[in-house]
Amino acid sequence: MSEKEEDRIDFKKLLPVLFVVLVDVLGLTIIIPILPFYAIAFNADTTTIGILFTMYPLMQFVFGPLLGSLSDRYGRKAVLALAQVGTFISLLTLAFANSLGMIFFARIIDGITGANLSTAQSVITDITSEKNRATGLGLIGATFGVGFVLGPALSGIALRLSGNNYSAPALLAAGFAFTSILLTTFVLKESLPAEKRGQKNTGNGRNFGRIFRALLDPRLGILFILTFLLQVIFGSFQVTFAPFTLNLLGLNSLGNAIFFATFGIVLAIVQGGLVGPLTKRFGERTMIYSGLLLFSAGFLISSFTPQQPVPWYSRAELIAELSQQSDEGRINEDSEQLELLPVEENKGWGGLIYLLIGILPLPVGIALIQPNIGSMVTKRSDSARIGEALGISASFTALGSIIGPSGGGFIFDLFGPNNLYLISGIGGLVLLAIVLVFLQSLPEECIGPEKPPKNLAE
Q1: In a domain, 272, yes or no
Q2: Which of 12, 35, 250, 265 has the smallest number of Cβ neighbours within 10 A?
Q3: Residue 4 forms part of a structural domain
């Protein structure tokens, strides 16, 4: 095969897995705009909501390496189908939840089987070469971006058609999850031949010591650290963005869904059309450096967002939306959850326009960073342990998602929304400095012994 042919991606193999990822992401992004409000409808306070958000990443941190190792041993298709079944069960549970405990149970089940993205990354790795892998992984990011555009829109449609019943988007998401199961079972082809699967069961991924020993691997340690710290910062953003826009702009779930859709458009454009060509021209490290700079700039600029409710803001209407889900524990003016709602004064467009423009560098930075980290992880891993490496990487992402929300919520309460984003931006610049020092000294390709160790912890 010529070098030019190796650079080409086989879209006949790629399209089925991208379609499966799209359906999976739609199920996820339909839920994102309503989950905090769903919990509030059962009178959950801010601390309880923070704990709810940690359930999925906590379970994924524990079980991610195990599922990654199982995909190396038994194939990608079986593990991906298992993950999708878990997602389907969790969404049905959420749709019919009649208590806060059932909402927690739904997130725990989804987290335990939450290997959808990392397994899809393994499939992409199997069917691409090192030269076009960043492009292939970038297309997963672009697909995720498309899902972020369509998912919130579909969630909004379901809410409007059901009279703002939060169960309706959950049922719609469950339908997409079931479709994903069918696609994986009957359309997606196994990408890891039996002769390339690991001969040993590496299911000891549940061993926390083994996960952390991977940090000492000279080929992968800095990438795992980057993955973890980046997600700590971004995890705080994911949980605090709704109270941030609520406090400063008076936005409800629909307003935040519009922001999520905007994020998705940016991700789709950058990861779908720009990451591959830019990476080929400038290299993966340069893309990571540039992404971190933009990531930090988004936080720093957004930290100066003025407090100005949008023209259509109505405190009474927002309270009515939150209080209709449950007959017990209705939200009212005395509820602690409503302390962040601004007064109906000084309404205008200035704050919304400023935030829309100021925060755009953030998704651009993420779009540049994520696929290039994934590509470098696969290049520096033993070919028989790529699924394991991506599983460990997912565990560090999950760990960051556990720490980030609680830390971000604490800083938000202690210093206020603007100062949280200022601190996040400074943290991003510090992370950039760390990566410049430690990643610059390593070559793009796999380093270390001529033959990498079979186990990442060795």
Answers
A1: yes
A2: 12
A3: no
Tokens 């891993």 -> residue: 381
How does residue 70 score in pLDDT terms, banded at 50, 70 and 90? Answer: confident
Domains identified in the chain, total number: 1
User: In this structure, is residue 319 part of a structural domain?
Assistant: yes
pTM value? 0.75
CB atoms < 10 A from the CB of 201, how many?
A: 12
> For residue 450, is it within any domain?
no
Predicted pLDDT at 265:
81
45 to 48, 107, 327, 386: CA distances (angstroms): 5, 17, 17, 41
Question: What domain range is 112 assigned to?
Answer: 9-188+206-439
CA gap 339, 29 in Å, rounded: 27
CB of 191 closer than 8 Å to CB of 126:
yes
Q: Are 29 and 152 in contact (CB under 8 A)?
A: yes
In this structure, what token pair is assigned to residue 370? 């994520």
Distances (CA, A) of 229 to 105, 141, 292, 381, 444: 28, 20, 11, 21, 21
Is the pLDDT assigned to residue 410 strictly greater than 50? yes
Average pLDDT score over residue span 415-426: 91
Convert 252-262 to b/e letters by CB count within 10 Å (16 or more is b): bbebbbbbbbb
Two tokens at 209? 């010591």
10 Å CB burial of residue 340 (0-12, 13-18, 19+) is middle
Token pair, residue 75, equals: 């194939």
CATH number, domain of 105, equals 1.20.1250.20
CA distances from 180 to 22, 132, 137, 280, 285 (A): 9, 26, 19, 32, 34
Sign of CA dihedral 123, 365, 261, 314: positive
56 contacts 394 by C-beta, under 8 angstroms: no
Residue 246 CB partners (closer than 8 Å, separation 6+)? 252, 340, 341, 342
Return d(Cα 308, Cα 355) in angstroms, integer: 11
Reported in sequence order, the residue ranges of 41-175 that DSSP labels E, i.e. its strands, are none
Mean pLDDT (the chain, rounded): 79
